[in-house]
Design brief:
By secondary structure, this protein is mainly α. The protein contains 19 helices and no strands. Among the domains are: 139 residues, Serine Threonine Protein Phosphatase 5, Tetratricopeptide repeat (Alpha Horseshoe); 42 residues, no CATH class.
């Protein structure tokens, strides 16, 4: 009797196991015929069974079903993206259960290459099919102007292919544009670890994120120095280095970097401007003015160069007038005419630079106010009236009350 009971138990277990395998075969059949909802119901029942649920093949079939569901939905919404994420998770579960070996067993099937454009029935519905489908969805969303979903689909594809530089550059670029800076750094850092990849633009993005959005000049400076090891001749990186040294108040190091940069690029307007700025900070006003003027000679359309040159000339004029006002009455009588002419000379010399600055940025009311003040000082009534009218038009009749 015991043997009979045992035999019947074994028959029952065999029948149950056979039944669950039949469910797996049903899931495969429904997957191939396109009845994906029924296929998913079948395979979920199989994953819940102790025997078929311990077989990595079961999860591989489930991942294939989810991948096909992901691709067949052209809505490309966040909900559709979540199906793709679920498929990736299922693929990875199957891969781990099968020993995490891409070169043999279930791992070989999971990572089978996918060639886009082949008939649907010839696609392997592997993890690479999921990657390619997600990439296509990202492009579709980007072309439709949906940057956020384009990012998420690129991100999903990138989780599968950490070595794919095109995917990660696109994802990082979009994340940065969306002000998703942590996500942008994730993708850009992956790019920085890819050998033989041209990382220059990636370094630019990382420096901008660290120095701007994250207000981390120390981190940005470290990134610039790493970038300069890879690209020692790059002029933009040289400018970043100087800018960050100034921000970190490392004046001596900044000046050394400026002098080195100017040896290689003597007509770089931005570096000449920074050289002038450092000289101005150190009290070398003549040297500063000379460098500011050189920056404009190097690039006449350089707004900052024109503005800084004009501003320093105004400062010199104000210094002359301040000195004049500090004199005794007797000294003032002796020197007022000469010193007044000297100050007016600086004001006149500043006009062309501010005029050019306004030409470059024609709606800049701050520059208009400066030109109004200077022309008023020099009794150029027609010019002063011209700027007054522009300011009334842009800021209203009481623009002077805003503080000059």
């Amino acid at each position: 009797m015991k043997k009979l009971i045992l035999s019947m138990a074994l028959i029952g277990a065999t029948t149950l196991a056979f039944g669950q395998k039949k469910v797996v075969r049903s899931a495969e059949k429904n997957f191939k015929s396109g009845d994906l909802k029924e296929a998913l119901t079948d395979i979920e029942a199989a994953t819940a069974d102790p025997e078929t649920g311990s077989d990595p093949e079961t999860y591989f079939i489930k991942a294939q079903i989810e991948t096909k569901m992901f691709g067949s939905d052209s809505s490309n919404t966040k909900q559709n993206y979540e199906i793709g994420k679920a498929a990736l998770s299922t693929f990875m579960k199957s891969f781990e259960m099968g020993g995490s070996d891409k070169s043999s067993g279930i791992g070989e099937d999971i990572w089978e290459e996918d060639i886009t454009g082949v008939p649907d029935n010839l696609r392997p519905y592997s993890i690479n099919t999921l990657k390619n489908t997600s990439f296509d969805k990202a492009i579709e969303r980007y072309n439709e102007g949906d940057q956020e979903m384009a990012y998420y689909f690129f991100d999903l594809a990138g989780d599968i292919a950490p070595e794919d530089t095109t995917i990660h550059y696109n994802a990082g670029f979009l994340a940065n544009d969306l002000e998703m800076y942590e996500e942008a750094k994730k993708h850009f850092n992956l790019l920085l670890n890819v050998d033989e990849y041209n990382k220059l633009n990636t370094y630019y993005f990382m420096v901008q994120i660290l120095s701007g959005a994250e207000s981390n000049p120390e981190g940005a400076y470290d990134m610039v120095m790493a970038a300069r090891e890879d690209y020692p001749e790059d002029k933009i990186l040289a400018e970043y280095e100087i800018q960050l040294l100034l921000q970190l108040n490392k004046m001596d190091e900044a000046m050394a970097s400026i002098q080195e940069a100017l040896k290689n690029d003597p007509n770089n307007a931005a570096i000449l401007l920074r050289s002038g700025y450092l000289k101005e900070k150190s009290g070398d006003m003549e040297g500063a003015l000379a460098d500011y003027k050189k920056s404009v000679e190097a690039d006449p359309e350089f707004y900052d160069g024109n503005f800084y040159t004009g501003a320093l000339m105004l400062d010199r004029a104000r210094e002359v007038l301040a000195e004049l006002n500090s004199l005794s009455d007797e000294e003032w009588e002796k020197r007022s005419e000469a010193m007044g002419k000297e100050a007016d000379g600086y004001y006149r010399d500043a006009i062309p630079y501010f005029t050019k600055a306004l030409e470059i940025r024609p709606d800049n009311t701050d520059v208009m106010e400066v030109l109004f003040q200077v022309h008023t000082r020099l009794k150029n009534e027609a010019e002063a009236d011209k700027y007054n009218k522009k300011l009334i038009e842009l800021k209203g009749p009481n623009w002077m009350e805003g503080g000059m």
